[in-house]
Specification:
Layout (H helix, E strand, L loop, with lengths): L1 H17 L7 E15 L5 E2 L1 E15 L2 E20 L2 E24 L2 E20 L6 E6 L7 E13 L2 E13 L6 H7 L3 E11 L1 E2 L1
Antiparallel strand pairs: 1-3, 1-10, 1-11, 2-4, 3-4, 4-5, 5-6, 6-7, 6-8, 8-9, 9-10
Length: about 210
Amino acid sequence: MKKIMMMAVVAMVSLTAFAQHEVGSIALKPLVGLTLANYTGCEVSTDMKAGLAVGMEAEYQATPFLGISAGVIYAMQGAKVKLDVAGFKLGSVKAKADYVNIPVLANVYVTKGLALKAGVQVGLNVASDIDVKTPISDDSYNLADVKDYTESMALSIPVGVSYEYEDFVIDARYNIGLTDVYKKDNVITNFALKGTKNSVIQITLGYKFDL
């Protein structure tokens, strides 16, 4: 009986050590960082486009090893699109799509400060345009504001990992797009961007404090 009680105490202590914050507490985390965005499902080849991510997340510590977080993050997304036809370079397109993302995540603490996370994210499109660069000139110009041709909402699944040290949190996650970025059956985006979905690596640094 004593051995069983000792094992239970050790297990509880180990679990308690996983979380940086007390069970039942709510912590806020302002954050800033980088997005490395791309498209999947494109009919042409694409490259990553770097952008800014800035926002705030709140986390409820449900158990010693599980936290539930929700946030609002402004993220610059999109992709660089290569327009190559039959070996001829016709130019490149920088597709910009900015979102206000609302992620809801389960954060599983596998050791003190280290959490694995997964959840769901709703993105609200706030800006969308296309810049074109031709091989004739190094100058780029704005082709079109394509917000009217962009879906107003994008769903994705964020998965990632974070590490907290002395209230600073490094967070790396991959947002897997589930829905199309652009509306179907429109002339502007159907040429190269038909059926594209978001694919975003997001790396941020945040500061976490209890309310």
